[in-house]
Amino acid sequence: MHAQDILKVSGRWKPWEIALWLLALASPLLLPTHALIINEIAIVALFAVSLDLILGYTGIVSLGHAAFFGMGAYTAALFAKLVMPDPLLGLVVAIAVSTALGAVCSLTILRGTDLTRLMVTLGVGLILLELANKLAWLTGGADGLQGVVMGPLLGKFEFDLSGRTSAFYSLTMLLVFFVLARRLVNSPFGGTLKAIRDNRLRAMAIGIPVTSRLAVVYTVAAAVAGAAGALLAQTSGFASLDVFAFDRSADVMLVLVIGGIGWLYGGVAGAVVFKLMQDFISSITPQYWTFWIGLFLVVLVLVGRERLVRPWTWFAK
Question: What is the number of other CB atoms lying within 10 angstroms of the CB of residue 317?
Fold first, then answer.
């Protein structure tokens, strides 16, 4: 079987995938009292998918991915407050700004070792965090950007306290970007990314333009992360410094550890498990919920994710 045929087969939608997404889109109706947590899960899942594009499929480790998430959040919030409150237009503007930032930052990951890239990505996030803190006249500084009021979605659906519109909005955007990411990783372009991840020198030897591939996928990942940040700001009506914080980058890394890297559904599954655990455990022990999540991660590493999810493997196939 030729490589293109393999890509076509792997790119086909399986019945369980269609059923899964239909169930996800219907979840705000099936669980109306949990619409807010569904919205949070969708945003975290989209953020995790963006990181998986560079970590799981290209092998670029980043501890500053929150830089693009935060840029999308503040851009969407400022656009709604200073220009116009249309959520879809604000989302497009936030994606455009995050894409531009990703294109600039992609130049920093083209050279050096993995440790160098790790520190550079972390440095970019810290720089943007400090800028957002110092430019208080624009961003609100440590108090955050308040007074962000979003207009109705498509001119009809208001963002209310129940979170149902927010959940539908975020789930739809998650599906849109997931489809685009899925198409990307199952294309010949995605095949070259995996070759670069597995052996960069061999990829260069067979003629793959490694530098341009890395720059493109890093920019695409930044755009998707910016979309996730924009969704957070739009559905919460608030943007604060924590969107740039190291904790945000660390959390999304944990999400991928839980769900698995190099598999787009790993980001989605990890987001579901992480947010549900966080919500459930923090409601029981608000002071020690991080301990229990840490214990879960230790067990996951010691036992092995494959053993824990083995009963679902045949279903996924």
Answer: 7
- Burial classification of residue 200, based on how many CB atoms lie within 10 Å of its CB (0-12 exposed, 13-18 middle, 19 or more buried): middle
Domains for the chain: give ranges and CATH numbers: 3-316 (1.10.3470)
Q: Are 48 and 252 in contact (CB under 8 A)?
A: yes
Angle at 254 between CA 250 and CA 259, to 5 degrees: 150
Q: Which residue has the tokens 């995050």?
A: 98
Q: What is the pLDDT of residues 224-255, one digit of tens each?
A: 999 999 999 888 888 888 888 888 888 888 88
Supply 126's token pair: 């810290």
Token code pair at residue 208: 């793959």
Nearest to 35 by CA among 228, 166, 176: 166
Q: Is 153 helix (H, G, I), strand (E, B) or coil?
A: strand
> What's the whole-model pTM score?
0.88
Q: Give the rounded distance of the alpha carbon of 244 from its chain centre.
A: 14
